[in-house]
Each structure stands twice: as C-alpha cells, then as structure tokens.
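re: that chain from earlier
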Amino acid sequence: MFRFAWSHKTFVLAAPLVIVLGTLIHELAHAAAVWIQGGVVTDIAILPSWAGSWGHMSYLPDPRVEVWWVSMAPLFAWTGISLAAGLALPVWGRRRGARLLFLVFFVLPVMDVALSFAGLYAGAAGSDFHKALGGLEVELLPAVAAYFAVYAFWGWRLFRSIAPGELGWLDFLAGYAGMMAVTCLL
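^ sequence. v structure.
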C-alpha cells in the first residue's frame, strides 16, 4: 500500500488541491448561470464545511433566474472542460504532467457529474440535479447511461493517448466502473 502511494505521490499530494479546484469550478459554474441570467450571487464557498457540503453558492431570488440552468450548469461546464481536454491531451502526449491533467480534466469532471446524478437517484432534495430533474429519474435513465458510456469511451481514448499500452480496455472499464461506484457511495 505504501509503495503504491509513494509511486503515485504526485496524485496523493495533489488530491486536496484537485478537490478544491473541482469545487471552485463547480460553484463558479452555478454562479455563472446566475450572472448570465441577470441574478446576484451573494455567497460562494469552495472549502468543505462541517455541515457536510463540499461547497455552496447562494443567490438572491429573482424571477429571471431559472433554477434548472443554475442546477445544471456544472454538467455543461464539466462537459465543455472534458471536450477541451480531449482536444489538448493527445497533443500534449506523454509529457510530464499529462496524467495529472487527465485526473483534473477527465476524472474530476466525471466524478462530480456522477455525484450529482447519484443525488438525483438517491432522492436527495438538496442535490443539484434533483432540483432540476426531480421526478424524471426513470425517463432520464437511458440518457444518463448513454452520457456515461460516451464518457467512458472518450476517457479511454484520452488515457490511451497519454499512457499507451498501460491498460487494456477492460482494465480501464473496470477502473471507470469502480470510480463511479465509489463516487455514488460518497
């Protein structure tokens, strides 16, 4: 266990920073949706709280601000970031830092989106997707499955470009499924 952690020390040391960065991007996506609609953001927190939240964003009630767009904004932000990473990482290739970029721009987005979908399917009334999509869980299941299947294929192609030959498709898929399961249990 210690040898594994030591051989991956960059990721172990970067994990807290990656979590804070992910929370910042997530909350700024919510805030951007409010600002684009003409609303006023009153508070943004990016550090985990003792109350159990990773972060939060608050805004003044405004009839112009659609809750759906505010709740779904991180999904759109992460999808855009992952698409941009998909264009940049193959060019970056096997250079130093490529795996860390993969962690930040692929693993982090898919885990955040999975956590949001887990909140929807768990019936967590305060979760982002439950606010926007509550009541549509069954109807959305094929779209959710397709989204994560495309994400898995995209991730495999990205990983293969930065670490060719290290993992087979089934190994990557098993890791992806494990990551999704752990995220949904959080």
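The chain has one domain: 2-185.
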